[in-house]
Amino acid sequence: MGGMPIPSRAALVDHLVRTRIAGDVATPRDNNLAHYRRLANGDRHYWLGLELGERWTDEQDVLAVMAERCGVVDDPGHRVGQDTIDPELTVDGLDRMAARLRKAAAGRERVLFATGHPGALLDVHSRTAAALRAAGCDIVRIPGGLTADEGYVVQFADVAVFERGASLWHTHSPEPMRAILAALDTPPDLVVADHGWAGCAGQHGVDAMGYADSNDPALFLAEAEGSLQVTVPLDDHVLDPRFYEPMTAYLLDAAGLTP
Which of 17, 101, 110, 126 could share a disulfide with 23, CB 3.0–4.6 Å? Predict the structure, then answer.
């Protein structure tokens, strides 16, 4: 991490709250509830590449999982205003992710990284990929020329991203990951991603882990059902991407991947 000090759990919790990666996050309560309702009503945009069937048709059931696994306010009567992510749950998720990364390193697995949030999480994924490569893992290179959603699926700093109009785009779509998996001769042993990239991989039976915001419930439901191995709750686009650096340092240290 270029000399980045490794924070203790308590110091990381304080940092997450101070930078609003967790704690009182920027995503408002009404936005969270609207997304839970749309998922429950069957809007596939909010399913993030997963097949949820008829299992999550009650908004209150979705809210209950989000309160348990993300730390949003559990009161159904709280409809507007501030909502929260529990920083302790964020660190718990990082610890679970670290355990799976440690297993990947021990087995020298083939790992694919991808992000729908290149403006915030690209460096988190890229640093994790570099640490796994140093530990002997094979970081999957995607085939060239892949297209999806009227754009291109490309790889930048070892991380698959969606490119359109000479820019890296924010996307929730599962289609870029679907294109990758269809083009690979052998699926990865592990996918580390977010949004539809993670959901699509998990739906295809690949071991997958992801980061998710309080208004993206599908990945939390997937972890609850076992189709996603780990979902780490956090605000996935805070003001300064460097705010995620202590979190990444903690993750890599917990995984035994710090030089």
Answer: 17
